[in-house]
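Action item from last week, closing it out:
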Amino acid sequence: MSLSIDTVADYTIIRTDLTKINYENANNFSKETVDHIENKKPVNLAIDFTSITYISSIGISALSVIKGIAKINHCNLVLFGLSSSVLSVLEQTGLDTMFTI
């Protein structure tokens, strides 16, 4: 897994080469994203989900951790490029209201 981090206007954008966030990679995805938030203190962070077609319950937990750390660090978190299947999972769990999409 690799994350790329770019700055566009007022947003730090995190992109990944993952197609799934699951038990194999959720912890690394979360850790790298959290490390960036804690070390760089971005005001606005957007995670690009364009390449991600599946997210498991562990992936949802990883997103919840990221959201919590972002909140503690006064970082606005936005998710974008969600596939219909990933968005559906967030809606089914009620987490679509927790995130800015």
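Closing note: The longest strand covers residues 3-8.
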